Amino acid sequence: MRVLLFTGKGGVGKTTAAAGTAILAALEGRRTLVLSTDAAHSLADAFGTDVGSEPTEVRTNLHVQQVDVQQRFERSWSEVQCYLLSVLDAAGVDPITAEELTVIPGAEEVLALLELRSQALSGSWDVIVVDCAPTGETLRLLALPEALGWYMDRVFPAERRIVRALRPVLAKAAGVPMPADTVFDAVERLHRELEEVHALLTSEQASVRLVLTPESVVLAEARRALTTLSLYGYRVDGVIANRIFPSEGADEWRLQWVEAQRAVLGEIEQSFGRVPVWRSSYHPAEPVGLRALTEFARTLYADVDPLATPTAEPPMSVTRTPTGAVLRLALPFVDTTDIDLARHGDELVITVGSHRRLIALPAALSRHAVVAARVDGEALTVRFRARDTGSA
User: Fold this and answer.
1) In 190-218, which positions are buried (b, 16+ CB within 10 angstroms) versus exposed (e)?
2) Which of 53, 290, 291, 380 has the smallest number of CB atoms closer than 10 Å to its CB?
3) How far apart are CA 143 and CA 359, in angstroms?
4) Strands 324-330 and 316-321
5) Are the C-beta atoms of residues 32 and 127 closer than 8 Å to each other?
6) What is the DSSP string of 187-222?
């Protein structure tokens, strides 16, 4: 099963690109689902039709889904919410206010990812296309599985044991109910499901496409997005440069835009040279509906297979050496001063700007010492040496 995620700065046309790509997949006879993880759903607007909370067929082999977050919330988080409501009730918080407080910020996107997992496991689809939230929200969302994994491995087991042992005393002393085992079970289930989502989205059959417009500010955000996606192990297999002004018949005002965009397009080609850059001209009308979206996608990809599996190396790899190993992590657009690297037990802690990733080292590497690290081209290389050998 092929999984494609489309993201980019708000307003650049990622929904149009996702919808058009899904149509091409369906036209090839592949069972295709396109769904949105954006809280501000716009897929129905793009297709110009009503879309339900369950997959809605809009043409042969093509279904569209806008996830019903409330329904998914009740299914995945009801035990935790009930507990939080009981705590707030004991504290005297108004019931309506309490219900609002128990809705976690960003829950919509997280629950939409869980719906992606369910659809992937259903076996109903050959292709799933995801219209993601704008870049910032998407990056935080895709980093969540690893962040939650750190908490689940180190803090959660001890916390659960302490609460279980001291529940009667704590409840009496604090005057509020302590979480029951069902609450902990719900958190563990959420963790397992998010781990499965992470495994799905970092597999060889999944990739991300960055959608942008030829503007300096948008390009800067896309470059940062590529770095962060690589940091967390997600493949970027293409960039879509959308809304390019055509130069034919341009008046003086539009020619200024053409020249400005031409300069930025040169930077885009230079920045993302290792992946395809597809271009789409500014259309006289917004592509809405099956026919317009199909024309948009066919013009965009031309003779290229839009569903081709990425052939580039994965963002992270480990190579054996006679005295140890070398870990390589793709980090485009960074230099040594942008990176902070530390070893903490059996983990590497890599910080790039405001983003941090903890890489759990396999058993073979955890017994090695880090002897050197440097940025080589567009990648961070970390050299390990077996503790009982000489220099690497």
Assistant:
1) bbebbbebbebbbeeebbbbbbbbbeeeb
2) 291
3) 12
4) antiparallel
5) yes
6) HHHHHHHHHHHHHHHTSTTEEEEEEE-S-HHHHHHH
Sheet of 2-7, strand order: 56-59, 62-66, 32-36, 127-131, 2-7, 206-212, 236-244, 277-281
Phi-psi sector, 271: left (phi>0), alpha (psi -120 to 50), beta: alpha
Angle 14-27/290-301 helices, nearest 10 degrees?
90
* Model pTM score: 0.79
Buried b / exposed e over 48-60, threshold 16 CB at 10 Å, is eeebeeebbebee
More confident residue, 151 or 67: 67
**CA triplet 147, 150, 155: central angle to 5 degrees?**
125
Instruction: Indicate the DSSP class of residue 331.
Output: -
Tens of pLDDT, residue by residue over 321-380, are 888 889 889 998 888 888 999 988 878 889 998 888 888 777 767 778 899 999 887 899
Angle at alpha carbon of residue 314, lines to 384 and 367, rounded to 5°: 20
Say what the alpha-carbon torsion angle 105, 106, 111, 112 is, to the nearest 10 degrees.
Answer: 150
239 vs 106: CA distance, rounded Å: 26
The average pLDDT across 95-117 equals 66
Beta bridge partners of 320: 325
Q: What's the number of CA atoms in the CB half-sphere (13 Å) around residue 271?
A: 25
Q: Which segments of 272-315 does DSSP mark as H helices, in order?
A: 290-301
> Looking at the predicted structure, is the pLDDT value of residue 13 above 90?
yes
Long-range contacts from 157-163, C-beta under 8 angstroms, 24+ separation: 160/184
Q: Give the max Cα distance, the chain.
A: 79
How is residue 338 written in tokens?
């942008």
